[in-house]
């Protein structure tokens, strides 16, 4: 009789020992894919393009924001064209593989973009990307 | 009997809260991470003072005027026509350099549309002509 009473009915349980393993796996994934949000940028609508490519080396990318009013921002600082040249020259000295990503509003004037390109040439930054959204068009 | 049972119990580290801690860190990384937003149209600018002279027969000039119309020569083309035209010219001449001359007041959107068509037409040599301040 006593032996039977020792066998307590085991409570139903969900095994939780492995949830931590699963969670840590996800953490590692997020840690590897994360680039910390360093800037807020300006409010823009990117133009669409079908030939949009991914940039693989994300750590080499520096953003230059241009909104439709013609404001230019790098790292959340509003700059003029001379400022763009000096800031980008500094970034280029730190990282010669720098890629400048021009994030310009689709309704901005091309002249402003042209000025930024000239400022980048002065800074010696020659690898450029025009930020676009992928867009499929007919044909 | 009761005494014996107490000895049998194995020492254990409580792991129930491990998952909670881990998920907390996950949420932190999820909110701070950006998924590869970096995409666009790649190009390389010429170095200052390194302008190369190109024979005029190897240049195809595409113009975008302030109204956002695309012109090759004197002809106004629609955006999809640009791709076919450029592909055709590239077949005729492999050395072809495409010069894109965009007016200062032309919309950026049109410039990107044309640039996109050039990329889709597999044009390798694209030159963005600088436009002077007015």
UniProtKB/TrEMBL annotation, chain A:
- Membrane topology listed for this record: Single-pass membrane protein; Single-pass type II membrane protein
GO terms assigned for molecular function: transmembrane transporter activity
Q: Does the keyword Lipid biosynthesis apply?
A: no
Spans through the membrane = 20-36
- Entry keywords, A to Z: Cell membrane, Membrane, Protein transport, Transmembrane, Transmembrane helix, Transport
Provide one Gene Ontology biological process annotation. Answer: protein transport
* InterPro entries from the UniProt entry: ExbD (IPR003400)
Source organism superkingdom: Bacteria
Where is it located? Answer: Cell membrane
CC terms in the record's Gene Ontology section:
plasma membrane
Q: What Pfam families is this protein classified in? A: ExbD
Q: Which PANTHER family match?
A: BIOPOLYMER TRANSPORT PROTEIN EXBD-RELATED, EXBD MEMBRANE COMPONENT OF PMF-DRIVEN MACROMOLECULE IMPORT SYSTEM
Family listed: Belongs to the ExbD/TolR family.
The name under which this protein is listed is Biopolymer transporter ExbD
The species is candidate division WOR-3 bacterium
Automatic annotation (TrEMBL), chain B:
Does this UniProt record's set of keywords contain Transit peptide? Answer: no
Biological process terms from the Gene Ontology for this record are: protein transport
Q: Which GO terms describe its cellular component?
A: plasma membrane
Keyword entries, A-Z: Cell membrane, Membrane, Protein transport, Transmembrane, Transmembrane helix, Transport
An example molecular function term from Gene Ontology annotations: transmembrane transporter activity
Annotated membrane-spanning segments are 12-35
The record's annotation in InterPro entries points to: ExbD
Annotated localization: Cell membrane
Q: How does it sit in the membrane?
A: Single-pass membrane protein; Single-pass type II membrane protein
The entry's family comment says:
Belongs to the ExbD/TolR family.
The protein here is known as: Biopolymer transporter ExbD
């Amino acid at each position: 009789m006593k032996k039977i009473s020792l066998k307590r009915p085991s409570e139903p349980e969900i095994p939780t020992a492995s949830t931590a393993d699963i969670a840590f796996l996800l953490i590692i994934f997020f840690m590897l894919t994360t680039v910390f949000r360093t800037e807020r940028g300006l409010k823009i609508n990117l133009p669409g393009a079908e030939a949009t490519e991914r940039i693989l080396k994300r750590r080499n990318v520096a953003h230059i924001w241009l909104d439709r009013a013609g404001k230019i921002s790098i790292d959340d600082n509003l700059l003029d064209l001379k400022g763009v040249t000096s800031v980008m020259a500094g970034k280029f000295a730190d990282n010669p593989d720098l890629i400048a990503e021009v994030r310009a509003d689709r309704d901005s004037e091309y002249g402003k973009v042209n000025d930024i390109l000239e400022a980048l040439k002065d800074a010696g930054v020659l690898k450029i990307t025009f930020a676009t959204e992928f867009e499929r068009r007919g044909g | 009997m009761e005494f014996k049972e107490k000895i049998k119990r194995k020492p254990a580290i409580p792991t129930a809260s491990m998952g909670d801690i881990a998920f907390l860190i996950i949420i932190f990384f999820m909110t701070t991470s950006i998924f590869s937003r970096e995409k666009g149209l790649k190009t390389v600018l010429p170095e200052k003072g390194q302008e190369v002279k190109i024979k005029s027969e190897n240049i195809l000039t595409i113009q975008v005027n302030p109204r956002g119309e695309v012109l090759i020569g004197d002809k106004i083309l629609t955006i999809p026509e640009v791709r076919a035209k450029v592909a055709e010219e590239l077949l005729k001449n492999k050395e072809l350099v495409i010069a894109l001359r965009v007016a200062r007041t032309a919309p950026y959107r049109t410039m990107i549309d044309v640039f996109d068509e050039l990329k889709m037409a597999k044009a390798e040599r694209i030159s963005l002509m600088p436009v002077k301040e007015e």
